[in-house]
């Protein structure tokens, strides 16, 4: 993060290359804008993306591989910025769900920056946090499938900053947000007598994304009267506005078959407009009450059993009001006629029904057979609200609940972990059985735990990618959160712990090797090339058989992708033995292999190991379509 003075910047101008000078001008020309502005240096940002190259290394003794010695689930140890750079070379456009719980920037030792915890009184802490998040979210955005989604947990303090930043990362892609109840007790830390009992989950997604929702229960729809329009059920005729808020919705309605009148509830007016009040009905979005009555969509009470009263004088009506002997709202027992309501004279001399009309809702009128999600995630102890129109997600309180990391590990291994019920419910609505889920602020591994639990429930084959740092500092150099908490939790969840049966599954534990571009040919190994090719082409990683001269990445009867660490007569012979009609081979001498195969009749596309290592690594190779017009201009 740049914390330079003006004199520092002026002195720096003398050392800028022409390309960097263009980048600096772009920065200065575009920073005056409407929206969120934070201290950032675009030259430093580009330099960070291209500083070095990132390669995965499989740590077999920390992994829990399947019977074939491979896995499509990854736990990646290292800075998540480096993890995301590596994933951009292997998973661009392949990840359906990204679900993260980033540091909240509270200043309470909730995140490490430059090997030390960010302090509460650091004057640059908001800019540092925003730039830290921005660099990662731009990389994460490019990993999403066309129908992919990013969900970000955040507290109330930083929601506004994060939301504005995400509007820049994914303009026009904001779906909405969830509000979830994090605690059941009071948490009045401000003295303002406001208990902060909630947090947020921001949702940004590509255009084709939609939550799964839930198919509505149509079993309640019947057709006892042989209605030609098909099955129906009764529904409310009112909406949640008072007569003072919606005066056009406050009017009496009449049963045309009996002449009986029905007063409107002053606390919940009719849901439809009246032709007697709205003269130009062409502008209405729904039909009028009178239209629905003519279509017999309004169900009136049975006249054989309904009580009907006629008050011949206003005095009789007022006396009935005083005795509460007037129509009432069934649930609250509140009267529908009171002395303070307007137009009381209307009811004098008219037959008034004590029953309530209902709306006839037909299955054919449903806009969708799928219920959407409610934006409110209620606490597990809250009484469930009856809502037939939306799905209400449920979550336990923050850091609690069965199968939490502290229960799995047997000690307080991680402070305030997200409850697995929250993560699992969100993934139930977003991650289909074959999807890949990424959490690059994995912490204690709750997202991986939730993915394994979902797979165990529905037999799905979802994969997880968890990126976690060690959180080691000079004061705690031996600390390794990724290995000792995240990976260990997933291992116990798979194998079982205490009296809890294991969920099954596997994972590969990866570390990252960072190489300067100039050192690539000297320090990179064929194993690096094999690992990154395996992940990119198959979504899985395995160790190569070092005893063999050729290492197949993908192989079937038609085609194969192979790594030949050193081209020899044995490796050429082993390629012929693969039985594939077409070969893509990465080797140390591609020209020589091409010559040999051209004369032998084998169809081969030969590439260097360097090609495999470089593919998709450097940010300057990114698709220009993902950059701004000014960025594209500078890239020329």
* Uncertain regions spanning at least 5 consecutive residues: 619-636
- The CATH topology of the largest domain is given as Rossmann fold
The number of distinct structural domains comes to 3
- Please give the largest β-sheet: 11 strands, mixed
Structural class: alpha/beta
* CATH top level assignment of the largest domain: Alpha Beta
Backbone shape = elongated
For the record, give the distance between the C-alpha atoms at the N and C termini, rounded to a whole number. Answer: 26 Å
CATH architecture of the largest domain: 3-Layer(aba) Sandwich
Proportion in helices:
25-40%
Largest beta sheet: strand ordering:
1-25-3-22-21-4-7-9-8-19-20
How does this model look, in words?
Helix content is 28%, strand content 21%. The protein contains 18 helices and 30 strands. The strands form nine sheets. An eleven-stranded mixed sheet has the order 1-25-3-22-21-4-7-9-8-19-20, with helices on both faces. A four-stranded mixed sheet has the order 27-28-29-30, sandwiched between helices. It has a three-stranded antiparallel sheet with strand order 11-17-14.
Which terms summarize this structure?
30 strands; Rossmann fold; alpha/beta; 3 domains; about 625 residues; 18 helices
Write the layout of secondary structure elements.
Layout: H1 6-12, H2 18-30, H3 42-49, E1 53-58, E2 70-71, E3 74-77, H4 80-90, E4 95-100, E5 108-113, E6 116-119, H5 125-141, E7 144-154, H6 156-169, E8 174-181, E9 198-205, E10 214-215, E11 232-235, E12 253-254, E13 261-262, H7 289-294, E14 298-299, E15 308-310, H8 314-322, E16 351-353, E17 358-362, E18 370-371, E19 376-379, E20 394-395, H9 405-409, H10 420-428, E21 436-439, H11 446-458, E22 463-468, H12 481-495, E23 496-497, E24 500-501, E25 508-515, H13 520-523, H14 526-538, E26 541-542, E27 551-555, E28 559-564, H15 569-577, E29 582-587, H16 590-600, E30 603-608, H17 609-614, H18 629-635
Parallel strand pairs: 3-22, 3-25, 4-7, 4-21, 8-19, 19-20, 21-22, 28-29, 29-30
Antiparallel strand pairs: 1-25, 2-26, 5-6, 7-9, 8-9, 10-18, 11-17, 12-13, 14-17, 15-16, 23-24, 27-28
């Amino acid at each position: 993060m740049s914390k330079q003075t003006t004199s520092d910047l002026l002195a720096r101008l003398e050392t800028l290359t022409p390309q960097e000078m263009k980048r600096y001008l772009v920065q200065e020309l575009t920073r005056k804008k409407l929206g969120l502005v934070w201290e950032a240096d675009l030259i430093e940002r580009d330099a960070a993306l291209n500083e070095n190259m990132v390669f995965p290394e499989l740590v077999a003794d920390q992994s829990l591989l399947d019977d074939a010695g491979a896995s499509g689930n990854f736990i990646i140890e290292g800075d998540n910025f480096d993890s995301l750079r590596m994933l951009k070379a292997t998973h661009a456009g392949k990840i359906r769900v990204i679900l993260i719980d980033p540091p909240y920037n509270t200043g309470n030792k909730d995140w490490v920056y430059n090997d030390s915890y960010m302090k509460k009184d650091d004057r640059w802490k908001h800019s540092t946090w925003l730039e830290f998040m921005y660099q990662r979210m731009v990389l994460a955005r490019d990993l999403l499938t066309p129908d992919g989604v990013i969900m970000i947990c955040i507290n109330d303090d930083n929601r506004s900053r994060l939301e504005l930043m995400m509007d820049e990362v994914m303009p026009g892609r904001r779906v909405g947000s969830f509000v979830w109840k994090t605690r059941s007790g009071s948490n009045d830390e401000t003295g303002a007598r406001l208990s902060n009992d909630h947090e947020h989950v921001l949702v940004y997604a590509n255009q084709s994304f939609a939550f799964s929702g839930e198919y509505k229960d149509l079993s309640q729809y019947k057709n006892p009267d042989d209605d030609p329009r098909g099955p129906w059920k009764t529904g409310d005729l009112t909406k949640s506005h008072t007569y003072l808020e919606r005066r056009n919705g406050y009017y009496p309605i009449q049963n045309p078959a009996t002449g009986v009148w029905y007063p409107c509830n002053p606390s919940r007016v009719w849901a439809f407009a009246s032709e007697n009040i709205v003269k130009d009905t062409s502008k209405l979005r729904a039909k009028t009450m009178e239209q629905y009555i003519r279509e017999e969509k309004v169900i009136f009470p049975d006249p054989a059993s309904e009580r009907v009263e006629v008050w011949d004088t206003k005095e009789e009506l007022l006396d009935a009001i005083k005795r509460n002997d007037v129509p009432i709202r069934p649930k609250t027992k509140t009267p529908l006629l009171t002395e303070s309501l307007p137009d009381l004279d209307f009811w004098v001399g008219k037959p008034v029904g004590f029953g309530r009309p209902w709306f006839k809702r037909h299955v054919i009128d449903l806009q969708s057979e799928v219920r959407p999600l409610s934006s409110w995630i209620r606490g597990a102890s809250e009484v469930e609200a009856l809502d037939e129109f939306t799905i209400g997600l449920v979550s336990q309180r923050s850091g609690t609940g069965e199968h939490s990391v502290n229960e799995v590990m047997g000690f307080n291994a991680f402070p305030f972990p997200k409850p697995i019920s929250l993560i699992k419910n969100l993934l139930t609505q977003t991650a289909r059985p074959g999807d890949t889920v990424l959490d690059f602020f994995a912490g204690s591994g709750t997202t991986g735990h939730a993915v394994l639990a979902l797979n165990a429930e529905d037999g799905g084959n979802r994969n997880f990618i968890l990126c976690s740092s060690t959180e080691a500092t000079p004061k705690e150099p031996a600390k390794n959160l990724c290995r000792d908490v995240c990976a260990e939790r997933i291992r116990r969840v798979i194998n079982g712990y205490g009296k809890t049966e294991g969920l099954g599954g596997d994972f590969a534990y990866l570390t990252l090797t960072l190489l300067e571009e100039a050192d690539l040919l000297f320090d990179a190994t064929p194993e690096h090339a094999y690992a990154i090719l395996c992940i990119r082409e198959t979504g899985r990683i395995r160790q190569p058989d070092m005893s063999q001269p050729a290492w197949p990445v993908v192989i079937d009867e038609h085609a194969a992708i192979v790594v030949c660490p050193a081209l020899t007569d044995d490796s050429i012979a082993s390629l012929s033995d693969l039985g594939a009609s077409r070969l893509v081979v990465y080797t140390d001498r591609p020209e020589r292999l091409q010559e040999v195969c051209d004369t032998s009749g084998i169809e081969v596309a030969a590439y260097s190991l360097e090609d495999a290592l470089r593919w998709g690594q450097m940010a300057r190779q990114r698709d220009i379509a993902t950059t701004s017009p000014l960025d594209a201009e500078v890239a020329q």
